[in-house]
Amino acid sequence: MQDRVKEHDRDIRLVRTETSAVSEHAHNTGHKPLWNEVKFIDRDPYYYYYTRIVKEAINIRLHPININRDSGIEIPEAWMPTIKKTQQQESRATADRRGSKSLNWANRNMNLKEKRNKIETKKL
User: Fold this and answer.
1) Distances in Å between the alpha carbon of 56 and those of 60, 100, 108?
2) Distance of CA 78 to CAs 51, 52, 72, 74, 84, Å?
3) Which residue stretches does the UniProt record annotate as biased composition, category Basic and acidic residues (predicted)?
4) Distant-in-sequence, close-in-space partners of 115: CB < 8 Å, separation ≥ 6
5) Predicted TM-score of the model (pTM)
6) Is residue 73 within 8 Å of 54, Cβ to Cβ?
7) What is the chain's Cα-based Rg?
8) Can you give the residue ranges of every domain in the chain?
9) pLDDT in tens, the chain (124 residues)
């Protein structure tokens, strides 16, 4: 990822707007990328080329407000309802995992408070 970040940063510094959508966006809007907050949306080994380009095209379709110049490979319209449903299920599962972590944390804190109250009660 660092190599790609360096490429984009160089394109912005050299105002290479014709070869870099990131550079064009930065030049046109004055936005400065937060390079230290860059993260992968998804990963696959380099030899899974087709899988990567399909995932990229799906993400572009699911998030139409972006700075990509092309839409990637064509994703059949008939696939989109299934893709959207799968994404919603994955989003709910992620939210559930986050929610259960929060709930576990809340339960843990409640148990600690109860233990403290018992100890304080015994002292009295």
Assistant:
1) 6, 30, 40
2) 19, 20, 17, 11, 11
3) 111-124
4) none
5) 0.60
6) yes
7) 23
8) 76-123
9) 889 899 999 999 999 999 899 999 999 999 999 999 988 888 888 788 899 899 999 999 998 888 888 888 999 999 999 999 988 888 787 777 766 555 555 555 555 556 556 666 665 5
Q: Name which of 39, 32, 29 is nearest 13 in CA terms.
A: 32
Query: Is the distance from CB of 60 to CB of 66 less than 8 angstroms?
Result: yes
For residues 94 and 87, give the distance between their C-alpha atoms in angstroms, rounded to a whole number: 10
